[in-house]
Amino acid sequence: MKRKVLKDKIDELRSTAKMELACTIREIMREHNVLKKELGWPVVVNNSSLVDIVEVGSGDTDIPVFTISVGAGYYKEPHKVGALDDSISVELLADIATGLNNELSGYVSTYVAKYRFLYEDGTTADMDEPYVFLAESERDAEDKADDYAEVWNDWNEDTIELVSVEKQTASEG
After folding, report:
1. Which helix (DSSP H) or strand (DSSP E) does residue 158 occupy?
2. What gap in Å lies between CA 38 and CA 35, rounded to an integer?
3. Whole-number Å distance between alpha carbons of 106 and 45
4. Per-residue pLDDT tens over the stretch 22-59
5. Beta bridge pairs of residue 79
6. CA-CA distance, 83 to 25, in Å (whole number)?
7. Long-range contacts from 91-94, C-beta under 8 angstroms, 24+ separation
8. Which pTM value belongs to this model?
9. Could you tell me if 65 and 38 are in contact, meaning their C-beta atoms sit under 8 angstroms apart?
10. DSSP-derived 3-state class of residue 76
11. What Å distances lie between residue 141 and 36, 123, 126, 146, CA to CA?
């Protein structure tokens, strides 16, 4: 096959996949009567960029628009991009569709695990920062929280123990 023919075929397949995923995102949002969704768990674009918000118009052919926060900490700058923009890959669209569907359909929830330090003299102190993560069920959340403590204890000089695991409600997030 000639290079140009192959390149054109690949570009056509990518374009079709992007359009299908954009339509899927629009369908997911319509199914839940949502025009704009701020993701509780943003989708990672790269080391310094996250998709925070997914929006779609009310028209039947509207293409989803994403707000991507670029930067870290207080230096984040939002940029809006369309689902069919060249900067948006098929893989990123698939990740956005999956994350959006999981959040809107309630397949995953945000959990908060709290820990405390255990000292050799028997005293304890609460950790300042909880571990916030996604899980599919309370059992899955407990397993992930236990795994976090195990990894912490293996890699740090301090020893921690799990105090609680709680499902975060929408009003808290």
Report:
1. none
2. 10
3. 23
4. 999 999 999 999 999 988 888 888 878 889 899 998 88
5. 68
6. 9
7. 92/43, 92/45, 92/51, 93/17, 93/18, 93/21, 93/22, 93/25, 94/21
8. 0.71
9. no
10. coil
11. 28, 27, 20, 9
